[in-house]
Specification:
The structure is a single chain. The chain has 2 domains: about 100 residues, 3-Layer(aba) Sandwich (Trna Endonuclease, Chain: A, domain 1); about 80 residues, no CATH class. Helices cover about 35% and strands about 20% of the residues. It has 7 helices and 10 strands. A hairpin with a 6-residue loop joins strand 4 and strand 5. The chain is elongated, with a radius of gyration of 19 Å.
Length: about 210
């Protein structure tokens, strides 16, 4: 599917917002995010193999009294989606967000675009997101050093669950960082899994598999 949005519609920084400059692996470019909720949502998008594309702040809804930036455009499992990260004021408001923008809601329905709302009641920080922050940083820095042949060889070894430390012993002539990043690449692509990523910090003892 061809992406409808590929660049942000606005780069204006909201007043008093935190700025996060990151590298978007799935879009192969620098991504700038404002505030923690879009940053956490971006980590979730990068960590979900079913998401094949995204774009931050793809459009600005000019309808109504006050413009509203759409937080993300997402292609997931072949479906187009527009994601909102509701602010504290929007969560506490008695007026549903889309009631303010009936024309926009109609446009989305007419174009077969799903509207998604991120649950802002989830914990701000957790182990899984911290792990994915580490994975993305490592992939951004080192994946260019990982050959396709090595990734294929690691995937074959992961036909049975193995720890990162086990893989280091299996490939003694390869830099351990490159081995680890090869595992991360498989996980990022949905070709391997690590059930411990959700509750344990990444370590050489962490187990991965590629069934």
């Amino acid at each position: 599917m061809e992406a409808r949005f590929v660049q942000p519609a606005t780069t204006r920084r909201p007043h008093k917002s935190h700025r996060f400059d990151v590298h978007g692996l799935k879009v192969s470019r620098a991504v700038t995010l404002f505030n923690k909720s879009p940053f956490r949502t971006w980590l979730d998008l990068e960590s979900t193999p079913a998401v094949t594309w995204y774009c931050e702040r793809p459009l600005v809804i000019e309808e109504g009294e006050k413009p509203r930036v759409v937080d993300f455009y997402v292609i997931k499992e072949g479906r187009e989606q527009l994601w909102f990260c509701p602010t504290k004021t929007e969560v506490e408001s008695n007026q549903p967000l889309l009631k303010r923008f009936p024309g926009f809601a109609y446009w989305c329905e007419h174009n077969n675009i799903d509207l998604m709302f991120v649950d802002m009641t989830e914990p701000v920080d957790n182990v899984a997101r911290a792990n994915w922050g580490h994975i993305i940083r490592e992939l951004s820095a080192f994946r260019r050093y990982v050959s396709a042949d090595l990734v294929s060889a690691i995937r074959s070894e992961l036909s049975e669950p193995k720890r990162i430390a086990d893989l280091w012993r299996m490939f003694p002539t390869v830099d351990p960082i490159v081995i680890k990043v090869g595992v991360f690449q498989l996980v990022h692509q949905g070709l391997a899994t690590g059930s411990e990523l959700g509750y344990l910090p990444i370590s050489p003892a962490m187990t991965f598999s590629a069934p």
